[in-house]
Specification:
The chain is 21% helix and 32% strand. It is of the alpha+beta class and 94 residues long. β3 and β4 form a beta hairpin.
Length: 94
């Protein structure tokens, strides 16, 4: 997420790192005992042809990473890039 652009800032919110474009958050990482969530604040609006996203909320979605499961790293990278592009468009277009 940090590599998406020079204007990406990382903040800690409730103890977890949140990637923001200015003050607008687009992604986060949350660590649990058995897995790690890579989440997206507007994840429900992201294209997800690999069907990695989980969750049923109105906006947020996450990808659950587990040590015993292989992750489609290319698809996760595309989600991160899409989340960054989405928030950038939202910020630029109001």
């Amino acid at each position: 997420m940090r590599k998406c652009g020079d204007e990406v800032r990382e903040l800690l919110h409730d103890g977890c790192p949140v990637a923001c474009l200015g003050d607008a958050p687009f992604g986060y990482v949350n660590v649990f005992a058995s897995h790690v969530n890579v989440g997206f604040f507007h994840g429900a609006a992201l294209p997800d042809p690999a069907r990695l996203l989980e969750g049923t909320g109105k906006f947020m979605r996450h990808v659950k990473l587990r040590p015993e499961t292989t992750t489609n790293a290319a698809a996760l990278s595309r989600l991160i890039e899409a989340a960054y592009s989405d928030i950038k468009a939202r910020v630029e277009n109001g």
